[in-house]
């Protein structure tokens, strides 16, 4: 569902991502792991058609990110940590607003809303203003707006940043549920234990390069039970 070959992004003399190739299959959670500045955000933004690659190519759900960005956008959702929603609107109003971007109006909107409300258990957010919501409720609205169009591919970029323990738990459980519905999730984080919990496969990104890729089990075995140790080992080997 996600394929990248030689994906590269340079900002002037600075290389943010260098020759990145990866494949994520349907029904899989792929954790892209790396410290701040490793190139995770840039990679996700290229896949989401928000940043144009300097070189290389990528496809999402069979569509080229450079040549068919609208087809790609129809099939993916993006959640960034710390994403804001309009404080003065209710959950329902926020979702109606974003639904209109996807052409979901009238009956189609109602169906999408019913689906997302049941999936995220967020009935209580519908008539509440965002500024009156808990962090957890707000997070549900952020996720709901990203998946209203039922994208088969979901990109999450440091999505647990700033969440309290309840909201974080709900998000990790949601990732697994969304995967189990047959969707594909690219989960970017620097928090290794989160990847240990949700990932099927992992990729280690260091200074813009993918230095390792494998199943979570292989990576854990290499790190004697710890992804963190596996990551450090691969980064040292690549140096
Ligand atoms: N618009 C830009 N102009 C110049 N340099 C940039 C730009 N965007 C990112 N970079 C640089 O590219 C590198 C990779 O950044 P990126 O944000 O992709 O990393 P990251 O792994 O997502 O880290 P973080 O979690 O801190 O966002 C960093 O060195 C960053 O400073």
Automatic annotation (TrEMBL):
InterPro entries: AAA+_ATPase, ABC_transporter-like_ATP-bd, ABC_transporter_ATP-binding, P-loop_NTPase. The keyword Nucleotide-binding applies. Pfam families: ABC_tran. It comes from the Bacteria. SMART domains: AAA (SM00382). Keywords: ATP-binding, Nucleotide-binding, Transport. Residues 2-232 form the ABC transporter domain. The keyword Protein biosynthesis does not apply. GO terms for molecular function: ATP binding. Belongs to the ABC transporter superfamily. This is ABC transporter ATP-binding protein. It comes from Thermus aquaticus (strain ATCC BAA-2747 / Y51MC23).
């Amino acid at each position: 569902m996600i394929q990248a070959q030689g994906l590269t992004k340079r900002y002037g003399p600075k290389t943010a991502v260098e020759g990145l190739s990866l494949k994520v299959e349907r029904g899989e959670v792929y954790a892209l792991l790396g410290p701040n500045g490793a190139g995770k955000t840039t990679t996700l933004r290229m896949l989401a058609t928000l940043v144009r690659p300097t070189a290389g190519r990528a496809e999402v759900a069979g569509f080229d990110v450079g040549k068919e960005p609208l087809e790609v956008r129809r099939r993916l959702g993006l959640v960034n940590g710390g994403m804001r929603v309009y404080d003065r609107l209710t959950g329902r109003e926020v979702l109606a607003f974003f639904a209109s971007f996807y052409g979901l109006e009238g009956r189609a909107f109602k169906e999408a809303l019913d689906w997302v409300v049941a999936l995220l258990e967020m009935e209580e957010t519908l008539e509440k203003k965002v500024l009156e919501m808990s962090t957890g409720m707000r997070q549900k609205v952020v996720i709901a707006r990203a998946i209203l169009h039922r994208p088969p591919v979901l990109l999450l970029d440091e999505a647990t940043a700033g969440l309290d323990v309840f909201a974080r738990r709900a998000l990790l459980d949601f990732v697994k549920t969304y995967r189990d519905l047959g969707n594909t999730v690219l989960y970017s984080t620097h928090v290794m234990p989160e990847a240990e919990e949700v990932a099927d496969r992992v990729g280690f990104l260091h200074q813009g390069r993918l230095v390792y890729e494998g199943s979570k089990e292989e990576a854990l075995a290499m790190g004697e039970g710890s992804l963190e140790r596996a990551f450090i080992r691969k980064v040292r080997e690549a140096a």
